[in-house]
Amino acid sequence: MEIEKITVIEAGRSERHYWLELWRYRELFQVLAWRDLSIRYKQTVIGVVWALIRPLLTMVIFTTIFGKIAKLPSDGSAPYALMVFAGMLPWTFFATGLAEASNSLIINGNLISKVFFPRLIVPTAVIIVSFVDFLISFVILLGMLIWYRFVPGWQILFLPLFVVLAFLASLGPSLWIAALNVRYRDFRYIIPFLVQFGLYVSPVGFSSSVVPERWLPLYALNPLVGVIDGFRWCVLNGQSRLDPLSLISSVAVTSFFLWFGLRQFRKMERGFADLI
């Protein structure tokens, strides 16, 4: 005899058992992630191709502008194109996750207004879909390593840690902006500008070694600096500089935004259904 599960809704219960509620709705998390993944890739070619073309075209443009025209140096003996693409992957993962997760609550407004579940599931599931794009683009990086006959060293073992750091760096601001976007819809116009601005102040098309030393403390406040430099350090056999200050600063800023984003999200979560 199968026993039906009963969901009890009472005042204050979600606050007291928030993380337990998230675990109870883990299947919904899988469903939403799979749904978004299916929408993007099912019965389409451009979805998969776009995940490959976008970072590849950006790499070509940055290599031409910074490497050929501006004559900026690469990291060690690594080809400039390989250095740029190694920085493009974590940046694209971060930027795509931030842009799409920030609008995820609005897009899923019908579901949020009709069904009770922890809203934190929605933006997190969207970032997981961006991670799939990252894995697809990673295939190009493997192909470039083979083409240039560039073999990573033991540092490659630490690559998953920097991928996790990129995920958390995207999740924190996404939660905050997603919550603000429910109340103030103007934020959806600000996100593309912030992403575009962040592309040029992050070491995507250039190496952090070209940044003047006097600007390093301010430069290190960008959480993507430590992520991108660490990613390159792993892929380029340690030839890319991994500044401890930048890494510590990235972890600290990422931790702050993760705490602040989660705090603001939970604070505004109760009113999502009414505002949407």
Topology:
Layout: H1 13-16, H2 18-24, H3 26-41, H4 46-69, H5 80-102, H6 104-107, H7 109-114, H8 121-147, H9 159-183, H10 187-201, H11 216-219, H12 223-235, H13 244-269, H14 272-275
Helix pairs in contact: 3-8, 4-5, 4-8, 5-8, 5-9, 5-10, 5-12, 8-9, 9-12, 9-13, 12-13
In quaternary terms, these chains amount to single chain
Shape descriptor = globular
Summarize model confidence as the mean pLDDT. 83
Largest sheet: none
- Computed over alpha carbons, the radius of gyration is 20 Å
Instruction: Let me know the number of strands.
Output: 0
Cα distance spanning the termini: 40 Å
Q: Which regions have little confidence, pLDDT < 50, spanning 5+ residues?
A: none
Report the order of strands and helices.
HHHHHHHHHHHHHH
Number of helices: 14
The percent of residues in helical segments reads over 70%
β-strand percent reads under 5%
Structural class: mainly alpha
Descriptive keywords:
276 residues; mainly alpha; globular
Kindly describe this structure:
- It is a single chain.
- The protein has 276 residues and is mainly alpha-helical.
- The protein has 14 helices and no strands.
- Helix 5 crosses helix 12 (223-235), helix 8 (121-147) packs antiparallel against helix 9 (159-183) and helix 9 packs antiparallel against helix 12 (223-235).
- The radius of gyration is 20 Å and the shape is globular.
- 38% of the residues are buried.
